[in-house]
Amino acid sequence: MLFNSLAFVGFFIIVTSLFFLLPHKYRWLLLLMSSCYFYMSFLPIYILVLGFTIVIDYFAGIFIEKSEGRKRKLFLWLSIITNVGILGFFKYFNFINDNITVLLKLFNFTNPVQDLSFILPIGLSFHTFQAMSYTIEVYRGNQKSERNFGIYALYVMFYPQLVAGPIERPQNIIHQFYEPKKFEYDRVVIGLKIMLWGFFKKLVVADRLGIYVNTVFSNSYHHSGLTLFTASMFFYAQIYCDFSGYSDIAIGSAKVMGYNLMENFRRPLLGTSFADKWYRWHISLYTWFRDYVYTPLARKARRNRFKLLSYVVLIFTLSGLWHGANWTYILWGFSAGLSIVVERIYQDKVRPHKYINRWWLRFFGTIIPAIIGCIMLVFFRAPTVGDAFHILGSILSFKGGNLFKGTPPINFYYCIIAICMLFTVEVIQEYYPKIKLINNNSVVIRYGGYLLAILIILMIGVFNGGQFIYFQF
To answer: Residues 443, 356: one domain?
Structure first.
């Protein structure tokens, strides 16, 4: 069930209405059943995979809490290996097998193992990482093991963030399922506003840009460097609005019922450095790798500068692999980590703030990482490494061409309008928070803002854009 569908609108209204009508003690059961229905609307059979990991991690958490010494670590690793093993089987088996086949061919051997044919369970990487957060936090003593199986299952399956995050920590969300929630008009309105902005990002910006981006990237060998660069710039905005739009709808729908999910995006397009942009992008994944992978490694590095910078590249490379079983994602992650390392070395050696005005430093710190980030995203978007290098070569050739080739000019103009509206709103949110439209104290301005946003969505929104990009991860 896609958030950008009428089916979800009906689902949301029914579930939310029943939630407030039912007594508190039955609400967790309603949410769990609704989440199961939501997940099974994609591919029902994979609820068994999710259920298996939930059972394993539920008991692992209890045994970790009860045990001491090596047994605690044993149960933790049992949980991690189970989760990573399932993720690896479904997501990376064919990738690994294909690379083994290529390697064996170099030595004139044949790989007897055939690729498996199945569909990747939707959102597998997200709920796998969320499940691992639970057992790790129990092991560290930051979270008590959850004895109510239904509540733990709901922690993993809570429908707003089940298939594309945010990747929650148990300390943030589990206790909220025990807290009675009242219907509060102001909170409900805030949640609906967040959802409205999410729908705007998805329907008006992401899916509108997607028409142009898909047309160009699907025929990359027939487009000029200028067109490919434009498509790459559009893709940067597209993937941001697609994913952050989902996060906004998830956060908003949970907020309506009284649940607070963590912030997942903080206007990353306005970040003033490579590092700042990544601090603001997919915050739940960034902090997951930081807390569970980078920090333990950094503690052992003992301030070894080379090791610490190497770990940054490693973390981002793993993040790339997390996104997909393809060398394109690995190269994208590696290049992202490398860009941060180069930036840190440059800042330490040159210290540009001593020579450049702060305003210009912020300006170039926003523009340059954005342009380079768009170019790096070619690896993320291109189907193969060969296609990615062809596109990069074409972009760096600086050859002009017809920007409208294969796509209606009117759609291109809509794309520009959509991007301008996005940046206008985000610049106001970032630098001029006192300027308010849908949060204005004036009823006329506030409801005028609601109406304007809805009209824009209806007029230039794309309602057949399909699923969210991050569903495939």
So the answer is: yes
